[in-house]
Amino acid sequence: MSNLPHQKPGQQFAYIPHADPELIAGTLVALANSEGGTIVLGVGGDGRLGTIFTVEEASDALMAAQRLCRPPVKTQWQQEQVPGGAVVTLMVERASEVHALEDGRVLVRRGAENVPAEGAEIERLAASRPAGDYELDEVPGARRDDLDDDIIDDYLERRQERNPRHAILPKDKLLQQIGALTEGRAPTVSGMLLFGKEPQLFLPQSRAIFVKFADTGPRGPGGSFGYGRREEFLGPVPLIIERAWRVIWEEMDKRAVVRGLQRQEETEYPSSAVREALVNAVAHRDYRLTGRSIEIRMYTDRMEITSPGGLPAHITIDNIVEEHYSRNPRLVNGLYQWGYIEELGLGVDRMIEDMVKAGHPPPIFEAKTHRFTVTLFNTRDAGRTTQTWEGNMNERQMKALEYVQRHGSIGNAEYRALCPHVGPETLRLDLADMVNRSILLKIGDKRGTRYIIK
């Protein structure tokens, strides 16, 4: 037994003499969540051999313990057969994500004991993990075939358009270069998020959820508790962005507005600001946090987009406009090459500018240790309206205005010809409404009445 370590149990050292999967699992999790360390199986702290008699028994105990860990803890092990039994030494590194037991408990190492962490301590653990390394972690159980070659080909085409002078590399060589594949051609976390066929099979936390409420609070139609629409978005992050945007677009209120005699469709929120908030949530969330998804909540007065994980590194609410730091640099670069991010580092500035230009209050940013929320309000400042003849118009009125723009004026007969299936009284009220709002000017009388731009 001369080769066995001679060290007392402590912060980074533990002895487990018996094949106890629960104790082994707890110690693996505690060491991984702390500073890492070593576990010696088959011998006690006093040097006496335990009841693990073969290497196979130690291996079975370790496999049973790993099934109790969420996710499994990476280990390296050495084995030694000694008179009367077997001794296995497990080396555990400090993990790049927070580990828990099957029952949800998060353990940390304090001295020679494994103790539960709670609340704020768990959040601090998550915030202190080195996320940049996590992007390059190999996805357990994933193979090269789990990446979608159609999506990869689309990415490569967009990347080449953006960087026409870059050398064209073989597909897998480029994937290794950008950190999507390991040297052994296994998908990494960033590779699975960008190109995976079904990323949520391996990273279930990578989905996004949309919920629309019929009130300013979490209520559904008729004032009852609940929601009016709920959608879940799966797939690689580019498809999540597109699918989420499609639903948001469908649910946003829209109105026809005239500016400079040109018809424009004005949305409830500036499209550019919503897309920016959505892309930021997908690009910068903390993918190490399991059990939490990106949430998009649409209320009658606001939209909230929440991503798991607080602000990274030195970023605070106070310096979020001036300072820039990416928690997931490879994911961000992938979305940039794809065209979802136009200019690196300018997203927050542009979101604020677009909201204010459209007459809305600037976005509200809220940062907690475990989440970050952007709130966009749909209220408008009427004082920002630059021309008095702007306003809501129905499709018939838009046709009338376009006719006036082309021909100089319109009369009742021409309006009826444009809208043959609408009653004359409705058309008269349309024109009267446009006169009352100073869009059109009424000239003449009775059969000679004409309407021109005021």
What does this structure look like?
The structure is a single chain. By secondary structure, the chain is of the alpha+beta class. The chain has 3 domains: 13-119, Methyltransferase, Cobalt-precorrin-4 Transmethylase, Domain 2 (2-Layer Sandwich), CATH 3.30.950; 130-379, Heat Shock Protein 90; 395-453, Orthogonal Bundle (Arc Repressor Mutant, subunit A), CATH 1.10.10.10. Helix content is 33%, strand content 20%. It has 14 helices and 18 strands. The protein has helices at residues 21-33, 55-66, 120-128, 131-134, 149-162, 171-177, 189-195, 237-251, 271-284, 329-338, 347-357, 395-407, 412-418, 424-436, and strands at 13-16, 37-41, 69-70, 75-82, 85-92, 100-101, 106-110, 113-117, 208-212, 229-233, 254-259, 262-267, 294-298, 302-308, 364-367, 371-377, 440-443, 450-453. The strands form 6 sheets. It has a 6-stranded mixed beta sheet, covered by helices on one side. Helix 1 packs across helix 2 (55-66), helix 7 (189-195) runs parallel beside helix 10 (329-338) and helix 9 (271-284) runs antiparallel to helix 11 (347-357). It is elongated, with a radius of gyration of 31 Å. The termini are far apart. Mean pLDDT is 84; it is low at 382-390.
